[in-house]
């Protein structure tokens, strides 16, 4: 009875169905078609083709992977062309393909992703690193390698680590280049840094175009160059930069992942190319050491021979991720079948209704189990040749990491690591995952780097631009004297604006003068009171003394004396004008006049003039009164005289 109910439950469980899942577990097909889009003429395409073919062979040789089902991979060459990529994608959709490995180019991925969305066929790309491909616009695009967003974060971390503030971005002006540089700008802004100049180049740029762009770059202030392009164009940029003298001491060249891939696949560089890259910095995706990786690396030489590849074709991280991408797809397909998935297709009604003409669009079909397969791809958790392999909720690989590579001598050396967990370090990131993350500045470390010009001294990172106006800065003499007496004194923000590159450089230059004794010699020559000699140094006798300024002092004194004399004469004339009737008889009179003169000097000119006018009015009125009095007096005298005469005449009568 228990057996009966068990069978009933199994039947009911198998009856559960979703989109793309049949009501019963169907028999697995013998063959599943998958596509692969690569650019066979590129170094990345050559390596990746060998890797994916090796992965398909390993999967098909192990019946436990897909339960007896084999993968049939159809590989087509997109030739790095967006148009041909569309054509190849359409051809894939005519062959009942459940998934496509590729495309290799971000530009082609933008176009093909629209077709994949319509027909619900997942795209698994290990080389299209444009960050915008992870947007919600392309739900069926799966990036199986670290996004450029993390690579640009690593570069921004290095810029901040070496205390540079501005960089120049040299890039190809397409989806891959523009969006990568946009991600770099965002990461730099988080660290208060910026891109001071964007030097864009056409995808089909010639050497003359590269020269014109680099000439404009050389006129700029920043000497930190970030090159984000393809291997062929990147090598042309470095060659032209060396011709223009832009790989000498003082420059910093940082190349993205393309340079490390070129170095890994090309083998030993010829002398001319080696000199072009001397001192450059590049990034390589970090893949931890493991037994699986070591076995695959040891097989690589035989795999290239079996593929008939001539010349050097070293294994790069693109090859490792291409190999793991096929294994990722195989495990997702196996889980798809375990859930009752069925490989079936249906016609797209909208394409059928269209008059496609010779395009034969009605032959393309929608993969009914596409969404289920896509969900299983993002749920895969495995260990491959690149290490632990799984996805985060935002469709990026878990814990991406990069190696920092310094190109020196006949090859290159590893100077450190970067991971989104611990930042810059000199130990492999996987050794830090068991510890709490520490992103403090004191914990960010890299080994010493040999910069362009064969120097280990960190470049300043900027110069005065050739097309700008020179900035003249005056430093007080007492400031130099103070620096000579106080070693280690730095110029603070009160002397220069915040984050000004002049502050550190001025402080460094003055400290060097102090250390080599130059400041002391300047002090002894121009500020010492007596002649003296220091160790092995004879001072000139034409130093400035106090008597050297006697002529200047005489001229200044004479000018001051003449000015005072003129002022005194002017005041005296005004006093005589306003006090013309002052008498100077007697000792008290002279002292009173002197006191009056001092009071006059202290008074304002307006008050003196007003008082003078008032005195003049008073004087004129006094004169008029005197005249009236004299007239009246004369009249009285005359009347008295007449009366007297009359009296005397009466008496005589």
Describe the overall structure.
The chain is built from 21 helices and 17 strands. α7 links the parallel β6 and β7. The N terminus and C terminus are likely disordered. It is an alpha/beta fold. α4 runs parallel beside α5. It folds into four domains: 223 residues, Response regulator (Rossmann fold, 3-Layer(aba) Sandwich), CATH 3.40.50.2300; 185 residues, Rossmann fold; 70 residues, no CATH class; 56 residues. It is elongated and about 145 Å long. The chain is 48% helix and 13% strand. Strands 7-6-8-9-10-15-16-17 form an eight-stranded mixed β-sheet, sandwiched between helices. It has a five-stranded parallel β-sheet with strand order 2-1-3-4-5, with helices on both faces. The chain has a two-stranded antiparallel ribbon with strand order 11-12. The relative contact order is 0.08.
How far the N terminus sits from the C terminus, by CA atoms, comes to: 197 Å
Strand order of the largest sheet: 7-6-8-9-10-15-16-17
Mean pLDDT: 82
What Rg, in angstroms, do the CA atoms define?
47 Å
Helix content: 40-55%
What is the CATH class name of the largest domain?
Answer: Alpha Beta
Secondary structure category: alpha/beta
Shape: elongated
CATH topology of the largest domain: Rossmann fold
Count of individual domains:
4
CATH superfamily heading of the largest domain: Response regulator
- Beta-strand proportion: 5-15%
Report the sheet with the most strands, covering strand number, pairing sense and barrel closure.
8 strands, mixed
CATH architecture of the largest domain, please? 3-Layer(aba) Sandwich
Contiguous helical run count: 21
Number of strands: 17
């Amino acid at each position: 009875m228990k057996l009966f109910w068990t069978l009933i439950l199994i039947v009911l469980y198998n009856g559960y169905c979703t989109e793309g899942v049949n009501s019963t577990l169907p028999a697995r097909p013998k063959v599943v078609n998958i596509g692969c889009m690569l650019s066979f003429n590129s170094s990345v395409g050559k390596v990746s083709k060998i890797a994916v073919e090796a992965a398909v062979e390993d999967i098909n040789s192990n019946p436990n992977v897909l339960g007896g089902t084999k993968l049939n991979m159809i590989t087509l060459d997109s030739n790095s062309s967006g148009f041909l990529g569309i054509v190849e994608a359409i051809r894939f959709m005519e062959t009942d393909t459940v998934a496509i490995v590729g495309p290799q180019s971000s530009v082609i991925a933008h176009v093909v992703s629209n077709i994949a969305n319509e027909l619900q066929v997942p795209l698994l790309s290990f080389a299209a690193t444009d960050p915008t491909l992870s947007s919600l616009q392309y739900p069926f695009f799966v990036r199986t390698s670290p996004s450029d967003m993390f690579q640009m974060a690593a570069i921004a971390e290095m810029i901040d680590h070496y205390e540079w503030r501005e960089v120049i971005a040299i890039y190809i002006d397409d989806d891959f280049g523009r969006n990568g540089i946009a991600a770099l700008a965002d990461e730099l802004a988080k660290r208060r840094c910026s891109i001071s100049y964007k030097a864009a180049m056409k995808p089909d740029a010639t050497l003359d175009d590269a020269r014109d762009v680099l000439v404009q770059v050389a006129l700029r202030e920043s000497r930190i160059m970030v090159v984000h392009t393809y291997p062929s164009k990147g090598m042309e940029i470095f060659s032209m930069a060396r011709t223009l003298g832009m790989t000498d001491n003082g420059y910093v060249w940082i190349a993205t992942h393309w340079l490390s891939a070129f170095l890994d696949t090309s083998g030993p560089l010829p002398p001319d190319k080696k000199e072009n890259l001397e001192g450059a910095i590049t990034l390589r995706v970090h893949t931890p050491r493991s037994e699986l990786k070591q076995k695959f690396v040891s097989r690589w030489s035989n795999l290239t021979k079996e593929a008939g590849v001539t010349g050097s074709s070293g294994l790069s991280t693109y090859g490792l991720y291409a190999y793991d991408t096929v294994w990722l797809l195989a495990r997702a397909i196996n889980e798809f079948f375990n859930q009752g998935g069925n490989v079936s297709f249906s016609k797209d009604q909208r394409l059928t209704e269209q008059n496609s003409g010779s395009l034969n669009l009605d032959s393309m079909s929608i993969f009914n189990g596409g969404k289920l397969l896509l969900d299983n791809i993002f749920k895969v958790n495995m260990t491959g040749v690149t290490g632990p392999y799984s996805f985060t909720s935002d469709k990026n690989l878990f814990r991406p990491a990069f190696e920092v590579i310094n190109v020196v001598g006949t090859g290159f050396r590893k100077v450190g690591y970067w991971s989104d967990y611990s930042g810059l370090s000199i130990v492999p990131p996987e050794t830090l995952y068991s510890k709490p993350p520490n992103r403090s500045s004191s914990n960010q470390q890299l080994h010493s780097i040999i910069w362009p010009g064969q120097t280990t001294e960190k470049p300043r990172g900027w110069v005065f631009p050739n097309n700008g106006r020179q900035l003249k800065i005056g430093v007080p003499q007492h400031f130099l004297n103070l620096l000579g007496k106080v070693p280690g004194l730095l110029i603070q923000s009160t002397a220069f604006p915040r984050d000004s590159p002049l502050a550190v450089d001025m402080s460094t230059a003055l400290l060097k003068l102090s250390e080599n004794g130059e400041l002391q010699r300047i002090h002894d020559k121009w500020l010492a009171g007596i002649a003296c000699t220091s160790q092995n140094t004879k001072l000139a006798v034409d130093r400035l003394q106090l008597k050297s300024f006697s002529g200047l002092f005489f001229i200044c004194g004479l000018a001051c004396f003449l000015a005072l004399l003129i002022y005194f004469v002017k005041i005296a004339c005004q006093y005589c004008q306003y006090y013309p009737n002052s008498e100077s008889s007697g000792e008290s009179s002279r002292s009173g006049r002197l006191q009056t003169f001092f009071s006059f000097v202290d008074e304002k000119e307006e008050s003196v003039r007003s008082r003078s006018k008032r005195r003049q009015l008073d004087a004129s009125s006094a004169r008029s009164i005197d005249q009236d009095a004299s007239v009246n007096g004369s009249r009285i005298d005359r009347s008295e005289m007449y009366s007297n005469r009359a009296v005397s005449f009466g008496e005589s009568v």
